[in-house]
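tokens incoming
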């Protein structure tokens, strides 16, 4: 099957939903000729996509926190407003096939037959809870066609750091009375989320105590964005209480990022982190030494931000491989 990247890009840029599945399948195809076409497609999309485009929102938290039920409630809240929604569920991966083990594990009653809702399950490859390069590519594609893109990950430590570099707003969903908050604080990840959500408000005093724990923990830490104080919200995804306030908090953070061009800075940092992370995973520290080391690589990325992140990965990867061949 031959895919013309320019034609496919034009369809996506015109918000053609029928082009989404074809583009996602292309970027997840590991055959060399398909990967070359995917690279051309992503390069066009990164250069020509309207800015800032769709809101990119990460939803993370331990298994059982109610993330999928929350997403169902968000769809019920957003669709009557006329907003379209895309959801990426990042699954653990099969070590043998590299595919998602759980398939489309989000079963949204509210969006199962709605053309304004798109659900895609993507594998984390060999990174438990982390994000594969295909996830980054998928978000780039979905953000062109849908109004909001949600990325749901299993909160096992690595995912919070990974997804925070991919999204505009990171939401941590806490499960009352399970020790999630304490573990999150011990892992030093409390400074990452932009919004904290205590789900299952019907748990009563236990849920309220979890809210207090989070608020106390936030008062002890420092954040890179001192101008934003993360709200701690109490919701019940099951009956929808607090979901409207949650959407208001998402919109407030979006407005905050658009002030003083914070969103541009955040996405630039995310693009550089994507390049560095991809090269580190593929070639290790020895490979990065072929580029002069990590500090040298950071300087090169900061000096010339023009190429797309995916083009940078390909070019720098080729440079590393050429240096390694010469050293043999």
């Amino acid at each position: 099957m031959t895919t013309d990247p320019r034609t496919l890009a034009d369809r996506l840029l015109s918000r053609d939903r029928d082009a989404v599945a074809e583009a996602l399948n292309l970027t997840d195809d590991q055959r060399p000729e398909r990967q070359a076409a995917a690279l051309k497609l992503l390069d066009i999309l990164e250069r020509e996509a309207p800015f800032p485009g769709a809101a990119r929102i990460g939803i993370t938290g331990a298994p059982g926190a109610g993330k999928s039920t929350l997403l169902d409630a968000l769809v019920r809240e957003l669709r009557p407003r006329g907003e379209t929604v895309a959801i990426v569920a990042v699954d653990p991966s099969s070590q043998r096939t590299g595919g998602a083990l759980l398939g489309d594990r989000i079963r949204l009653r509210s969006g199962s037959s709605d053309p304004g809702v798109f659900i895609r399950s993507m594998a984390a490859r060999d990174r438990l809870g982390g994000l594969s390069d295909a996830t980054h590519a998928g978000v780039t594609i979905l953000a062109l066609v849908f109004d909001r893109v949600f990325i749901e990950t299993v909160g096992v430590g690595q995912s919070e750091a990974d997804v925070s570099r991919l999204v505009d707003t990171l939401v941590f969903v806490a499960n009352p009375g399970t020790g999630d908050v304490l573990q999150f604080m011990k892992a030093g990840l409390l400074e990452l989320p932009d919004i904290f959500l205590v789900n299952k408000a019907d748990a009563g005093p236990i849920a309220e105590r979890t809210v207090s724990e989070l608020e106390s923990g936030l008062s002890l830490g420092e954040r890179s964005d001192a101008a934003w104080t993360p709200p701690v919200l109490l919701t019940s995804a099951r009956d929808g209480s607090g979901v409207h306030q949650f959407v208001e908090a998402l919109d407030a953070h979006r407005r905050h990022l658009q002030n003083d061009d914070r969103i541009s800075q955040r996405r630039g940092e995310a693009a550089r982190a994507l390049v560095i992370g991809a090269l580190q995973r593929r070639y290790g520290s020895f490979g990065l030494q072929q580029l002069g080391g990590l500090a040298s690589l950071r300087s090169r990325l900061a000096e010339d931000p023009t190429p797309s992140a995916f083009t940078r990965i390909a070019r720098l990867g080729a440079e590393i491989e050429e240096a390694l061949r010469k050293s043999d």
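note: The chain has two domains: 50-260, 263-327.
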